[in-house]
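# step 3/5: fold
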Amino acid sequence: MQNSSKKSKHVLFFSSWYPTRINPTNGDFVVRHGEAVSLFCKAAVLHVAYDTQMSQRKEILSNTSQSLSEYIYYFRLPFLLKFLKPIYFLLLYRQAFRSYVKKQGKPDIVHLHVMFPLVIIAFLCKLFYGIPYCITEHWTGYLPTAPKPIGRLKKWYIQFFSRYNSSVMPVSEDLQKALQNYGVRGQYTVVQNVVDTSLFHPSQTKDYAKIRIIHISHLKDEHKNISGMVRVFKKVCETNSQLVLQIVSENPPLYVKEYVEELGIQTKVEFLGYKNRHDLAQVLREASYLLLFSNYENFPCVIVEALASGIPVVSSDVGGISEHISSENGILVESGNETELQVAIDHMNVQAALYDANALHSYAVEHFSYETVGAQIEHVYELMTVK
């Protein structure tokens, strides 16, 4: 992936969620947004992380060998000083930013991913350095279907420190409406999640003898409704012996395995654990279709990756999923409706092999590729810096 246009913009990313050695999957979609931007702009990430396992008080790790440069500052505090962690975060971000500017120059734009809590950092860059900032939001907590409403103090914090943004880029139209309802003002542009379509692509030699249903998530039941999904899977297995449910998740919670055993379907469920991007792409290529049954969502990255891999999707109709999933590439069911889900799975078990894998991949290239999303974000940057 290369772009011949001149990389005239210098963009610095901050993100409230970002992969670290403590949690290597946290906000990994932010990395992909950064990589997409790096096709068109000089791009780097500054991130501060708290690590209780460190022997020293502070450690700086940098990776400048890739298109998206990363500077991650790790720190820890003595037990009696842990109450100072928020202040130390601010001080360390200040130090990291000054060091970055000294070595790399002042960025033209600050791009913040996930407003809480780091929106204050973008705000201060605007206040003291005159650098415009934009926001990309991913958090499901703004959705009216989220189980816990945002508290008043947190709501005020987000509204106050986001008010001088130059652009807001939610990952779905549904999330845009939710943000506007929470009083987040700005010039809105929906910019989707991104996938490496050169890595995630269809298989040319797929084996359809066994139906491999794949689920990928953090497995939190109140969010992903794992218990409802496996209950339905058990019922489907009673009339179809050719099924296997593959679950990809880092450190799956014990309740899932216990519930699978309670239902007596442990021979039909495979826990594949954590998969890096290359291994995940291979697993998706071999799968028959993706299965989600969430109670609420924005627009999950796993859907983008599944389409790029040429496999259809069965999902609950929540959040922004219906903005891209239709009868052309999957089946949507009512959230929590296990009868509907069982019918959808039975149907997909018969129809999955009939979907045009190359057409699904082409849709992903058109809407979610690095080139497409990077160009959309660069256009937003151009509008931000027009004087």
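# step 4/5: annotate
Residues 172 and 323 are 8 Å apart (CA to CA).
# step 5/5: archive (pending)
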